[in-house]
Amino acid sequence: MSTRRTRPAPRPPEGTPPRTELARQARAVLADAVRIAHWAAGAPAPGSAAPLATQALERAATALELSPAQVRAGWDRARLAGLIELHGDTARPGWRLRAWDRDDSAVLRGWVALFDAWSLVHAAPEGIEAGAVAEAVEAVPQVLSLLQLSAGPVAVPALLDLLAQRIAELQEERCEVPYGAGRSTAESAPATTGRPAPAPDRGADLDALLLDWALEGLAAVGALTLGKGHATLTPLGNWAVWVKLEQICVAAQSPAGNIEQSAADMLLGCARLTPGPARAEYRAWLAARTVGSAVAELLAVARGEDALLRGLAFEALRVVGAPAEPEVRAVVTHPSLRPYALLWLAEYEGADPDDAQEILSREEATWLWVDTAAAVADHGETGLLVRHLDSAVQGTVPALLDEVRAVGHPRTVQVLVALAAAHPDPALAKAVRRAAFQVHTGGA
């Protein structure tokens, strides 16, 4: 019997709606995206270089009785929320779409993915330097914290003061010159006083424009509502900011009666166990089934879009051992299973688990890194996603981002957005966010 102690989950702020109500609100926010995802899953779609080809856009608008602008926006949201995934020129339903009507956790994870990507949903104002936009994105969490702590409407001037102060602090931390309003570098450089440069040096109009953009972007994803001169977090936004502040994620429940569960539910039940107890659960589940049916069920789960279940399925197959070898060898040609199958076979044939990674090509290792990061982003804690950077085969973050962009994993944008939101290094987060934007828009 395991004697591990688990920390009780903190309670959300008083007045937070139950998860079923939060999920209902998230479904309402993403209703058009879900409709478009169902439509796209049954029709050819373009590659990721463009949001939606003109002909497909027209067909979708006609079929769904939406305007082209609504279709384009819904398509964008469906991709960012993991409702659809592009594989070459084909759009496939993501695992969240299949679970949408029955799994509130999947719905909330999808909405949080959209919430994290608000700056991609709502285009930044034209004519503003990318650095200024990136600073605003980096400062927004502080604005959200004020909104969450205030538990009600907050006047826009107060939010503007906080945004300007936070941007000045970020510039001071990096010893950067504030963005001036049409002044030369020499003219706009602040005196060296050891204090953040005052907001007016940056340009109050620029800060106001960026705040308006951020508030509109957050309102577009359902995180807040805008009134005359004030902003208020929605119940969804309030819950999401609290979750971020508490570093709590939607995660699998502890195992209970796993022998009776399907493979997917059994694996989720074991997700938070240490390796020893997890293997004991796998053995008990396997003992209640024929080997053939158990292996088939585990591989069927591995073929799904939930990366956490894919990795756990192969952990359970390690417990099966030799009887699973023919079936595992047969899935080596399946793109999403190939890295896992190669590692399983290498260990089965006697390779040390620490050395087995060497059998993967650079591209396979990068694909596996993104898939594992997707599992962490969906089910893990923020710190795990940041530490996952250390496991990449590339020696530098720029090299990793270059190869991640090229590998074509369907979850690349969501992984990069989540990593940018989680990483404490502002410069690195900015580079990751830029890479996510480039992948999302099909840029180089």
List its salient traits:
mainly alpha; globular; disordered N terminus; three-stranded antiparallel sheet; 444 residues; 4% strand; two-stranded antiparallel ribbon; 25 helices; 62% helix
Structure write-up:
By secondary structure, the protein is mainly alpha-helical. The protein has 25 helices and 5 strands. The strands form 2 sheets. Strands 3-5-4 form a 3-stranded antiparallel beta sheet. Strands 1-2 form a two-stranded antiparallel sheet. Strand 4 (224-227) and strand 5 form a beta hairpin. 39% of the residues are buried.
Order of helices and strands: HHHHEEHHHHEHHHHEEHHHHHHHHHHHHH
Order of strands across the main sheet:
3-5-4
Output the number of helix runs.
25
Low-pLDDT runs: 1-8, 45-51, 179-201, 247-256
Distance between the termini: 53 Å
User: What coarse outline follows from CA principal-axis ratios?
Assistant: globular
Please outline the major beta sheet.
Answer: 3 strands, antiparallel
The count of β-strands is: 5
Concise account of the structure shown:
The protein has 444 residues and is mainly alpha-helical.
Record the SSE blueprint.
Blueprint: H1 19-29, H2 31-41, H3 54-64, H4 68-80, E1 84-87, E2 90-93, H5 95-99, H6 104-116, H7 118-121, H8 130-150, E3 154-155, H9 156-174, H10 185-188, H11 199-202, H12 204-220, E4 224-227, E5 230-233, H13 235-246, H14 263-270, H15 275-287, H16 291-302, H17 307-320, H18 325-330, H19 338-348, H20 353-356, H21 362-379, H22 382-387, H23 397-407, H24 412-422, H25 426-441
Antiparallel strand pairs: 1-2, 3-5, 4-5
Helix pairs in contact: 1-2, 1-6, 2-4, 3-4, 8-9, 8-12, 8-13, 9-12, 14-15, 14-17, 15-17, 16-17, 17-19, 17-21, 21-23, 21-24, 23-25, 24-25
